[in-house]
Design a protein that fits this description.
The protein has about 475 residues and is an alpha/beta fold. The chain has 3 domains: about 260 residues, Rossmann fold; about 90 residues, Up-down Bundle (Four Helix Bundle (Hemerythrin (Met), subunit A)); about 55 residues, no CATH class. β15 and β16 form a beta hairpin. The longest helix has about 30 residues. The radius of gyration is 25 Å and the shape is globular. The two termini are about 40 Å apart. The protein binds adenosine monophosphate and zinc ion.
């Protein structure tokens, strides 16, 4: 079976036929760089990395172009910059925030075992160069020329009724769209659904000269311009999280198709499901907001990746400490089995599973069978387990490297464990046994076992702990 992918545009699983097999092109919306990426953001990062690996396997690495952008112009960045560096001029503060965050993001992506995308454009590089308009400004001008956009009070807006089949991707009614877009009411809008392509900047805010105002692009425009400039007017795959279908991807499609006069922007639209944490939607107000960095302090990046891929990418998934603990223990076992074995044969059943709309849960079934064959089996069986797991970006280290990184991890954990044990002792002293038990369970899920004993001299309770594996 060849590659089949579920296409949000047609709501069916389709055979994947690239426009040009010698240049397979994929665009995935990347991070807005103003703060540490959260664990939900890790999902598209990992899922589309697996697709990238599969495409490279099928079409050869040199025939695949993967573009993942960096959004480095956005109001959230401006607010963060002013808050964090109030003493710096805003443009310098913005640079400090975006450079720092971009670096953190790259470290996270590497720790999660993601390959570098082929190209990683920054939005600010596609607005104008040497004060000469480039991709974004030219694209907006073309939309005005073609009657799909209009300028008003320094803004440029895309006029939604100018596109008869607007809304095909999200398949929503106009009422749903208006509710979903949290439509902004503005006197210069001709239609409530019209959205911003360009907006004027206030003094001090980042601004680029344009025929309409000194201003900056809207977020949707950034992706349309970068995808068009780097992948062409029509390309193969466009990906992102399910929340981006509307309005972001719908608006990218509207801009790109109307500016280029094409029927489609990308042939296949892929969306990953949402991730929640310990059964709850992740949110700052619930206090369960977890960054990739928080998790990397407690778990190996490879275990986070393993745990993520156990769910099919389109299904919702739950990130739990017990899942991460189990993933870590399984990796311990697999590395123990393969030792420092070299390259081997890839198991065709795993490729078949990935070809079926990235069925990673099925790949794990295959990997467990390969593990059974590799235990005490010939070196070839061990090498096959390793080569097959590498399709998912797993088991890429040697057992020696894994052990070294795990013990480094364990020493990082120690301070955390000690503070948890102290918090539990405090809770017990305050007779808050529910909290004490909760902490013990949390430690248990982290793979830490506690032993309570009375000090024979003082009669005080002393708790010792050990790593379970
Ligand atoms: P954002 O920084 O919100 O633009 O998100 C960057 C990427 O992460 C997008 O592809 C989002 O769809 C995706 N994303 C954000 N939150 C989650 C989540 N909880 N689960 C899965 N994907 C998410
Ligand atoms: Zn985008």
């Amino acid at each position: 079976m060849g590659l089949r992918l579920h296409n949000t545009l047609t709501r069916t699983k389709q055979d994947f036929v690239p426009i040009d097999p010698a240049n397979v092109r994929m665009y995935v919306c990347g991070p807005t760089v103003y703060d540490f990426a959260h664990i939900g953001n890790a999902r598209p990062l990992i899922v589309f990395d697996v697709l990238f690996r599969l495409l490279r396997h099928i079409y050869k690495p040199e025939h695949v172009t993967y573009v993942r952008n960096i959004t480095d112009v956005d109001d959230k960045i401006n607010h963060r910059a002013a808050e964090e560096y109030p003493h710096l001029p805003l443009n310098e503060a913005i640079r400090a925030v975006t450079e720092k965050t971009e670096k953190q993001f790259h470290e996270d992506a590497k720790a999660l075992g993601c390959l570098d995308p082929t190209l990683e454009p920054r939005a600010t590089e596609f607005i104008s160069r040497n004060d000469q308009p480039t991709d974004m400004i030219r694209m907006i001008a073309r939309l005005i020329e073609r009657g799909n956009a209009y300028a008003a009070e320094g803004h440029v807006l895309f006029h939604v009724p100018s596109m008869p089949d607007y809304g095909r991707l999200s398949n929503r009614t106009l009422d749903d769209m208006i509710a979903g877009a949290r439509v902004e009411v503005a006197p210069y809008k001709r239609d409530p659904m019209d959205f911003v392509l360009w907006k004027p900047s206030k003094p001090g805010e980042p601004a680029w000269p344009s025929p309409w105002s000194n201003g900056r692009p809207g977020w949707h425009m950034e992706c349309s311009a970068m995808a068009g400039a780097l992948l062409g007017e029509t390309f193969d795959i466009h990906g992102g999280g399910i929340d981006l279908i509307f309005p972001h991807h719908e608006n990218e499609i509207a801009q790109s198709r109307c500016a280029h006069g094409t029927d489609v922007m990308a042939n296949y639209w892929l969306h990953n499901g949402f991730l929640q944490v310990e059964g709850e939607k992740m949110s700052k107000s619930l206090g369960n907001f977890v960054t990739i960095r928080d998790l990397l302090n407690d778990w190996p990046g490879e275990a986070i990746r393993f745990n993520m891929l156990k769910s099919h990418y389109r299904q919702p998934m739950d990130s739990t400490a017990s899942g991460l603990s189990e993933a870590t223990r399984t990796l311990d076992q697999w590395y123990e089995i393969i030792g420092d074995v070299g390259p081997g044969m890839l198991c065709a059943d795993a490729v078949e599973a990935l070809n079926d709309d990235l069925n990673t849960p099925q790949v794990f079934t295959v990997l467990h069978q390969l593990r059974d064959e590799a235990i005490g089996g010939p070196a070839g069986a061990k090498a096959c387990l390793k080569a097959t797991a590498e399709m998912l970006g797993l088991l890429g280290k040697t057992a020696t490297e894994w052990k070294a990184s795990s013990s480094a991890q364990a020493s990082v954990d120690e301070t955390r464990v000690v503070s948890f044990v102290a918090a539990r002792a405090t809770a017990r002293k305050a007779k808050n046994f529910a909290e004490a038990d909760r902490i013990r369970d949390e430690l248990d899920a982290m793979g830490i076992a506690l032993k309570d004993a009375k000090d024979p001299k003082t009669g005080e309770l002393v708790t010792t702990w050990e790593v379970k594996r």
